[in-house]
Specification:
The protein has 209 residues and is an alpha/beta fold. Helix content is 21%, strand content 34%. The chain contains 5 helices and 14 strands. The strands form 3 sheets. Strands 1, 2, 3, 12, 13 and 14 form a 6-stranded mixed β-sheet that branches. Strand 10 (162-163) and strand 11 (166-173) form a beta hairpin. Helix 2 (45-56) crosses helix 3. The longest helix has 12 residues, at 45-56. The radius of gyration is 17 Å and the shape is globular.
Length: 209
């Protein structure tokens, strides 16, 4: 699989890259024809900082109190908070960066000690990949419970343009990939043609089958 990987550069900053592997991949919500590898942006502090600068430009006029990080985006979230606090409407702000916990029912929760960063706050939701929007919906349900206000959505890669009436601002979109497609498991043409699933994928990576 790895020998099929190719790099895609950000159009505005060629130092920001993702890897893509063509094939047949299954997520919790869909089947897709590419595995999008965002490991470098999540783990390299240099690339994460470059990515944060690129992403922050979309939120210069958006008031943000807290960044909620999903799918291992904590380092990107920290650099994003720092960048937002240096320019624009959030200049000088102390922006909180938090990650929800998943309970035994796979619901997002915040413990008592972090709820102060959610209750009544303007929230920027940061996610690594938005392919169907279901993870965003789960996060929105959580915010409603804790009385947080969703002000913005940021992603490394997104196949959707908006969610819950709010634009999804991403560094890479599906049209940056050659013919990216996403299907429900019941309507996947790759399954219908008998093409085996190469790997199960989630925000942590992939497991070959």
């Amino acid at each position: 699989m790895e020998n099929r990987e190719q790099n895609i550069e950000c159009k505005k900053n060629k130092r920001i890259k993702i890897g893509i592997i063509p094939g047949h991949f299954a997520t919790n919500h869909s089947h897709v024809n590419y595995y999008v590898d965002m490991t470098s942006i999540k783990t390299s502090h240099k690339m994460a900082k470059e990515a944060a600068i690129e992403l922050a430009a979309s939120f210069a006029t958006t008031h943000v109190d807290t960044i909620i990080c999903l799918e291992s985006t904590e380092m990107l979230g920290a650099f994003l908070a720092e960048t937002l606090a240096e320019t624009g409407i959030n200049t000088g702000s102390d922006i909180a960066v938090v990650t929800p916990e998943l309970n035994m029912n796979n619901q997002m929760i915040f413990r008592d000690n972090t709820q102060k960063n959610i209750w009544g706050k303007q929230i920027l939701l940061l996610i690594s990949s938005a392919s169907t929007g279901k993870s965003i919906t789960r996060a929105v349900d959580c915010l409603q419970y804790y009385n947080g206000s969703l002000a913005a959505i940021g992603a490394i890669f997104s196949a959707i343009k908006d969610s819950h009436g709010i634009p999804v601002n991403a560094i890479f979109y599906d049209n940056d990939l050659p013919k990216y497609d996403s299907y429900s498991s019941s309507s996947c043409p790759m399954c219908r043609s008998g093409q085996k699933v190469d790997a199960l994928i989630n925000s942590y990576g992939y497991s070959k089958l």
